[in-house]
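S2.1 Query sequence (Protein-export membrane protein SecG)
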Amino acid sequence: MDLSLVKTILQVLLAVTGLLLVLLVLLHRGRGGGLSDMFGGGISAGAGSSGVAERNLNRLTVGVAIIWALCAIGLGIIARIIAVTG
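Output structure tokens follow.
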């Protein structure tokens, strides 16, 4: 497989997982005292997601974050390989 193709795939995956990560973080229930209260998050604190849904959202967020980090590391390694080989 060509190195530029792998680089392009990783760049697309990095962008998609980055956007997904932002959306997943915004879906989390506010803990209070932060920006979530400023925008009305404190009002609906009792109507938030259940414990199981919150745990599943946490797991999904961590999984997407790990994929995002691996893509970033992979792009760094590819950039180093391209710089060395010219």
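Residues 3-85 form one domain. The chain is about 75% helix and 0% strand.
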